[in-house]
Design a protein that fits this description.
Keywords: Lyase, Magnesium, Metal-binding. With 357 residues, the chain is of the alpha/beta class. It contains 13 helices and twelve strands. The structure holds Citramalyl-CoA (CQM) and magnesium ion (MG).
């Protein structure tokens, strides 16, 4: 690990200075598309204004014989499109694949100035981030970039989960982390065959009721397969000033299950999730924007708490320094999102006015 003094020094002569703080830009949905798929690529100009992050995916879901086409497609789309304040990200191929080096070199030199974040799959430890960190610094210097490209790790191997804290702390370039439930399940030898979500077999069953006869029904409750990993990821990210995300939900038709999975992640501290299909964009937008009534409540508590110390009662509930801080999280997020989303700004203002009556 570099010394504290060296941590914020560029890793190559001529590379831009690393960021001190990860800029918090709305990223409720990271919308995946295959830049080599002409039908999907044609939708980019109309989808870009509707999403917070647009991600050109080069890794899994892109067939091996179309990897170069996807890379070239992303360069073409990035050059031709004005993304406004929508972020452009990419997911490069895994570092042990035949394509990762050319993905980083080509995208960094050709469209590095437009690329906000590089998502790196199957990160196993800090060593993977250190490799990408130095390489990106060399590429930035070569391309004359003035702003560093940030790095996002996917948590999708058992080793990665074991090393999650060191990954989060590995570089000032680290922007955040997403859960990759499909590869993680395979790596852990879990017995699921899905991309995220629950499983009906992972449950707890109520004890038999006293005196109930044999065979009397005993309710079961499906449990969350991902609670442990998401909670670990959130703690590692929060402790290192970077952002946690739930990843993909593969059952596109199960919009209710998707919304529940996203909301669990939101409540636990995640700032966004991936949308794999246009139908998931609005789900993520709804879930990862705090509800207007929650924002109104948060603003009410903040107003009542004055300098944020002491204790007050509001509607029979005790508020103190710690609830004040929670309310600042909700209200601060709402302010950031409202600045990008006028419809949301209107809904927050109306709810706040209503609550004040
Ligand atoms: C699921 C699929 C095959 C269904 O695609 P489809 O064409 O069968 O669906 P559809 O409902 O018929 O599509 C309707 C229209 O929407 C378009 N469309 C459809 N999707 C998109 C999109 N994303 N962006 C833009 N447009 C899209 C599609 O082209 C079509 O256009 P049309 O009306 O002109 O015919 C398709 O949506 C897709 O390929 N999505 C992206 C999949 C992907 O990126 N997977 C990798 C991420 S998950 C992962 O990697 C795991 C992880 C983290 O690594 C780990 O857990 O380990
Ligand atoms: Mg994966």
């Amino acid at each position: 690990m570099r010394s504290a003094k060296d941590f914020f020094r560029p890793l190559a002569v001529g590379a831009p200075a690393p960021v001190r703080d990860v800029p918090f830009r709305p990223s409720r949905m990271i919308h995946f598309f295959d830049p080599g798929n002409e039908k999907m690529a044609a939708k980019v100009p109309s989808i870009a204004p509707k999403v917070d992050v647009l991600l050109g995916n080069l890794e899994d879901a892109v067939p091996a014989d179309r990897k170069e086409a996807a890379r070239a497609g992303l360069v073409k789309i990035a050059r031709a499109t004005d993304f406004g304040d929508t972020q452009l990200w990419t997911r490069v191929n895994s570092l042990d694949s035949p394509w990762a080096l050319d993905d980083l070199l080509t995208l960094g030199t050709e469209i590095g100035g437009k690329l906000d974040v590089v998502m790196v799959p199957k990160v196993e430890g800090a060593h993977d981030i250190h490799y990408v960190d130095r390489l990106l610094a060399q590429i930035e210097a070569k391309a004359g970039l003035t702003r560093p490209i940030l790095v996002h790790a996917i948590l999708e191997t058992a080793a990665g989960v074991g090393n999650v804290e060191e990954i989060a702390a590995a570089s000032p370039r680290m922007q955040g982390m997403s859960l990759g439930p499909a590869d993680l399940a395979a790596s852990r030898r879990m017995k699921t065959t899905r991309v995220g979500g629950g499983h009906p077999g992972y449950l707890v069953r109520e004890d038999p009721a006293p005196g109930a006869g044999e065979g009397a029904p005993r309710p079961t409750y499906q449990q969350d397969l991902w609670h442990y990993t998401i909670a670990r990821m959130v703690d590692a990210c929060a402790a290192n000033g970077i952002l946690p995300y739930y990843g993909p939900f593969g059952d596109i038709q199960d919009v209710t299950g998707c919304e529940d999975q996203f909301r669990n992640a939101f409540l636990l501290g995640c700032v966004g999730a991936w949308s794999l299909h246009p139908v998931q964009i609005d789900i993520a937008k709804r879930v990862f924007s705090p509800a207007p009534e929650d924002v109104a409540w948060a603003r009410r508590v903040i107003a009542a708490m004055g300098d944020g110390t002491g204790a007050v009662m509001i509607d029979g509930k005790m508020q103190d320094d710690a609830t004040y801080k929670q309310c600042q999280v909700v209200a601060g997020l709402a302010d950031t999102l409202a600045a990008r989303d006028p419809e949301l700004a209107g809904a927050y203002a109306a709810a706040t006015e209503e609550a004040a009556r």
